From TrEMBL, chain A:
It catalyses: (2R,3S)-3-isopropylmalate = (2S)-2-isopropylmalate. Belongs to the LeuD family. LeuD type 1 subfamily. It comes from the Bacteria. This is 3-isopropylmalate dehydratase small subunit. Heterodimer of LeuC and LeuD. It comes from Bifidobacterium boum. InterPro entries: 3-IsopropMal_deHydase_ssu, Aconitase/3IPM_dehydase_swvl, AconitaseA/IPMdHydase_ssu_swvl, IPMI_Swivel, LeuD. Keywords: Amino-acid biosynthesis, Branched-chain amino acid biosynthesis, Leucine biosynthesis, Lyase.
Automatic annotation (TrEMBL), chain B:
Keywords: 4Fe-4S, Amino-acid biosynthesis, Branched-chain amino acid biosynthesis, Iron, Iron-sulfur, Leucine biosynthesis, Lyase, Metal-binding. Catalyzes the isomerization between 2-isopropylmalate and 3-isopropylmalate, via the formation of 2-isopropylmaleate. This is 3-isopropylmalate dehydratase large subunit. Pathway: Amino-acid biosynthesis; L-leucine biosynthesis; L-leucine from 3-methyl-2-oxobutanoate: step 2/4. One of its GO terms (molecular function) is 3-isopropylmalate dehydratase activity. Binds 1 [4Fe-4S] cluster per subunit. GO terms for biological process: L-leucine biosynthetic process. Pfam families: Aconitase. Belongs to the aconitase/IPM isomerase family. LeuC type 1 subfamily. HAMAP family: LeuC_type1. It catalyses: (2R,3S)-3-isopropylmalate = (2S)-2-isopropylmalate. Heterodimer of LeuC and LeuD. It comes from Bifidobacterium boum. It is an enzyme of class 4 (lyase).
Length: 228, 467
């Protein structure tokens, strides 16, 4: 994983709260089986709108996203972080992140920086006053600098340590393989009734009939809303 | 001081306590897998030359991408077909048990596992899907994870996690006949907001919760994530044990007695303290329905679309404004005046047998309104479909003018052929009303199966009491 220490780049103000992962990347792009190449899918629906912030030339090279509260709610899809990363974002700033999204960022070398909403508002103001403005996020110092303003942000010590060193989680865990083996021994003795998926047990197999589309009796005139 | 249910389950899975701010290492009893969030995890294992540590604690099925008609024919969507065949190939290569489309045990991950009896009290259960919280209905600690964590669990059968905070949601008193489990959870989300449970495990408690069936408890725990919570839990009791007894993977004989003795210890101590506590009076609850584009934007069905100018908080005012515009509604409009095009009954929230029985009971002897374009009834799993057919529910749905489909995620999310067109409006028993969730430009009103069925009869948003 790429190390993250200091990030300098274009700040993008996203004045929205409750940005869910369906907005960050719609489900239709989740059919891919690879882990890269999601940049075009980022904010797919919103990017159809010419007024959307990322469609303004000043913000196109965005590297630091400054968003409203409750960023990343909804689906657990890690594709949301892959899309942000592939587009070029290394940092997302918000006053509150959804838990699963937050966990996914650090696994992909992306920093989710937590700041009070007042700081977010101030950054929005600064970034909109001078669109395309660069800002600097210093993970070591836990600060964001935009023009003359330097603001602190919150990040857990452990997440910070992993990001700064680019550590892989699985490698870290496997250092404790003895502990895992010891737990498994205790588990087999204390909880012998815990289920195993193999060998498979199930009720008798029954053939499943395939449903069919009904035959169309009359063509649909389209949504009621479009008929008014 | 005593401990909460969530803390007890955590303690029983502690492999290693974190030191100096490092997270704990927690053992995972079961990981559920599906085609969407697993391919990159298998690929990661392959690239690192690793193997799953415990294939007997993994199980997979196909649900998100699968069509709900013509399942005996080739998948018309090549990308979906590739993702499904990738899962089949991976499961074969790594030795993971798979229930593919067409199998009697195939279904939405959160429906097929409880039916097999694999979801049991006191377990840790994870899946690359946020609605894993469903399994908390059994007193398991169950939560959604990302794909990197799916790979981590395959490689180590553990996760490194900071302990979750705890939150009690007490539902006191008796639930009125007109209200359902879905109305309880929609009311909770409207009260605490989409971030209200962030970082917490919610334990649902109180008289109204104890009286719910397992299917209803799963509806409530399922949508814990919509309140921002890591997980939702309900302490196991006789209802739980009765549901489990005799299921294929439930313990038997002496092991059953041993298991029940342990399960009975899984409850919050009287003197335990939660980090947060919220109380709702069940008697005040009525059918609930959403008007906006996040699950917290809901009102009682007799209420109105809000007037943004009346909302004091600037952030919420702006969110309401944009949601009302997207949804094509008028501020102050009565919810019951809204006509819908499509009715969707299904999903991991409300596609179980209790839900289908509720809908069938209301639909029986009626026909869908002429103005309704389509009514999709989609069982959450193939076993649910078989049970519904055994009870003759499929006939009631067909006589009503509804489409009786094969099991899967279907119209809950725009990943399979069951999608809406721009501007199409649904009443949906699913869990998310986000912009474009049911297809680009789709408009979703979340509600219970009873409200969805009544709406299908009348054409406008309705409660069964309006019939």
């Amino acid at each position: 994983m790429e190390k993250l220490t200091v990030v300098t780049g274009t700040g993008v103000p996203l004045r929205r709260s409750n940005v869910d992962t369906d907005q960050i990347i719609p489900a239709v792009f989740l059919k891919r089986v690879k882990k890269t190449g999601f940049e075009d899918a980022l904010f797919y629906a919103w990017r159809r709108d010419p007024e959307f912030v990322l469609n303004r030339p000043e913000y196109k090279q965005g590297k630091i996203l400054v968003a409203g509260p409750d960023f990343g709610i909804g689906s657990s899809r890690e594709h949301a972080v892959w899309a942000l990363r592939d587009y070029g974002f290394r940092v997302v700033i918000s006053s509150r992140f959804a838990d699963i999204f937050y966990g996914n960022t650090a696994k992909n070398g992306v920093l989710a920086a937590i700041m009070p909403q007042e700081s977010v508002e101030l950054l929005w103001k600064l970034l909109e006053e001078e669109p395309g403005r660069e800002m600097t996020v210093d993970l070591g110092a836990r600060t964001v600098t935009c023009g003359d303003v330097t603001l602190p942000f919150e990040v857990g010590d452990y997440v910070r340590w992993r990001l700064m060193n680019g550590y892989d989680d699985i490698d870290l865990t496997l250092q404790h393989e003895d502990d895992i083996a010891a737990y498994e021994k205790m588990r087999a003795e204390k909880f012998p009734f815990k289920p195993k998926t193999i060998p498979a047990k199930h009720w008798p197999d029954v053939p499943i009939q395939s449903a069919r589309e009904p035959e169309e009796t009359q063509p649909w005139a389209g949504p009621i809303a479009s008929r008014e | 001081m005593g401990t909460t249910l969530a803390e007890k389950v955590w303690a029983d899975h502690l492999v290693r306590q974190g030191e100096n701010g490092a997270p704990d290492l927690i053992y995972i009893d079961l990981m559920l897998m599906h085609e969407v969030t697993s391919p990159q995890a298998f690929e990661g294992l392959r690239l690192a030359g690793r193997k799953p540590r415990h294939t007997d604690l993994l199980i997979a099925t196909e649900d998100h991408n699968t069509p709900t008609v013509d399942i005996d024919r080739p998948n018309p969507d090549k990308t979906s077909a590739l993702q499904l065949s990738t899962l089949e190939k991976n499961c074969k290569e790594f030795g993971v048990r798979l229930h593919p489309l067409g199998d009697a045990d195939q279904g939405i991950v959160h429906a097929f596992a409880p039916i097999l009896g694999l979801t049991q009290p006191g377990m840790t259960i994870v899946c690359g899907d946020s609605h894993t919280s469903t399994h908390g209905a059994f007193g398991a600690l169950a939560f959604g994870i990302g794909t990197s964590e799916v790979e981590h669990v395959m490689a180590t059968q553990t996760l490194s996690l900071k302990p979750f905070k705890t939150m009690a949601v007490n539902i006191e008193g008796e639930l009125p006949k007109s209200a359902s489990a879905k109305d309880i959870i929609l009311a909770i989300i409207a009260k605490i907001g989409t971030g209200g449970g962030q970082g917490h495990v919610i334990e649902y408690r109180g008289e109204a919760i104890r009286k719910l069936s397992m299917d209803e408890r799963m509806t409530i725990c399922n949508m814990s994530i919509e309140a921002g919570a890591r997980a939702g839990m309900i302490a196991p009791d006789e209802t739980t044990f009765e549901y489990l007894k005799g299921r294929p993977h439930a313990p038997e004989g002496e092991m059953w007695d041993k298991a029940v003795a342990y399960w009975k210890t899984l409850k919050t101590d009287d003197d335990a303290v939660f980090d947060k506590e919220v109380t709702l009076n069940a008697a005040d609850l009525t059918p609930f329905v959403t008007w906006g584009t996040n699950p917290g934007q809901g009102v009682p069905i007799d209420g109105n679309v809000p007037v943004p100018e009346d909302i004091a908080d600037a952030e919420q005012r702006a969110a309401a404004q944009s949601a009302i515009e997207y949804m094509g509604l008028k501020p102050g409009q009565p919810m019951k005046s809204i006509p819908v095009d499509t009715v969707f009954i299904g999903s991991c929230t409300n596609g179980r047998i209790d839900d289908l029985r509720t809908a069938a009971k209301i639909m029986k002897g009626h026909h869908k309104a002429d103005s309704i374009h389509r009514v999709l009834v989609v069982p959450a799993s193939s076993r649910v479909r078989l049970e519904a057919e055994r009870e003759g529910l499929d006939k009631i749905f067909k006589d009503f003018g509804a489409e009786w489909r094969n099991a899967g995620c279907s119209m809950c999310l725009g990943m399979n052929p069951d999608k809406m067109v721009p501007g199409e409006r649904s009443i949906s028993t699913s869990n998310r009303n986000f912009e474009g969730r049911q297809g680009k430009g789709s408009r979703t009103h979340l509600a219970s199966p009873a409200v969805a069925a009544a709406t299908a009869i009348r054409g406008t948003i309705s409660s069964p009491e309006d019939l």
